[in-house]
């Protein structure tokens, strides 16, 4: 209540001072009205500024959380990204182990050889599941994009730069080179006219 009376007294004093200061009462009222409008506008702008600042803080926190989540997902992908491949390879590994354990007891090399061939086929089917395919090299023209020449061999039966021997298979992973095929390339044999 006291604040209200104080405000009223201030207004009376201001209005008396304004009457004395300005020749017309209209100018004083216009100034007072303008000041009131500016104060209201300032309050609105301050409110908007607080809201914008709050939104900016929230957006920054969301961005930080997103960065942390992406870093964790990336680390998990690096750590566990090959889990499916390894899970598929483990039975192949188990079969190879079984194949090496049994020859001592049975002494049958034919069974061992058959078991290893089956395991290799199983292993290859796992690789195919994951998009791995062999590079065809034999009897092909040497291609430096997929072949690695480790030696040259003289050959009368092959054109120059043809692959005559495959020392190690090459592989593609979903069309991208995983490992080049190591090959021997034909070179022309020099015939002497002597």
List the helices and strands and how they pair.
Blueprint: H1 2-21, H2 25-80, H3 83-101, H4 103-106, H5 109-129, E1 132-134, E2 147-154, E3 163-168, E4 171-173, E5 176-179, E6 181-187
Parallel strand pairs: 2-6
Antiparallel strand pairs: 1-4, 3-6, 4-5
Helix pairs in contact: 3-5
Can you describe what's shown?
The chain is an alpha+beta fold and 194 residues long. Among the domains are: 81-130; 133-188, Head domain of nucleotide exchange factor GrpE (Nucleotide Exchange Factor Grpe, Chain A, domain 2, Roll). The chain contains five helices and six strands, in the order αααααββββββ. α3 runs antiparallel to α5. The longest helix has 56 residues, at 25-80. The chain is elongated, with a radius of gyration of 43 Å.
């Amino acid at each position: 209540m006291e604040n209200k009376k104080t405000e009223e007294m201030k207004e009376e004093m201001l209005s008396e001072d304004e009457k004395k200061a300005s020749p017309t009462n209209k100018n004083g009222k216009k100034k007072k009205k303008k000041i009131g409008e500016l104060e209201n506008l300032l309050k609105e702008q301050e409110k908007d500024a607080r809201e914008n600042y709050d939104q900016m803080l929230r957006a920054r926190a969301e961005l930080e959380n997103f960065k942390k989540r992406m870093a964790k997902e990336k680390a998990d992908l690096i750590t566990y990204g090959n889990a499916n491949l390894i899970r598929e390879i483990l039975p192949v590994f188990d079969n190879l182990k079984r194949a090496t354990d049994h020859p001592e007891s049975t002494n049958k090399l034919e069974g061992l050889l058959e078991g290893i061939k089956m395991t290799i086929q199983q292993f290859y089917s796992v690789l195919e599941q994951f998009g791995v395919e062999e590079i065809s090299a034999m009897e092909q023209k040497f291609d430096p994009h997929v072949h690695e020449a480790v030696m040259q061999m003289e050959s009368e039966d092959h054109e120059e730069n043809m692959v005559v021997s495959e020392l190690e298979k090459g592989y593609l992973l979903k069309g991208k080179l995983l490992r080049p095929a190591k090959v021997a390339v034909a070179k022309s044999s020099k015939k002497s006219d002597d």
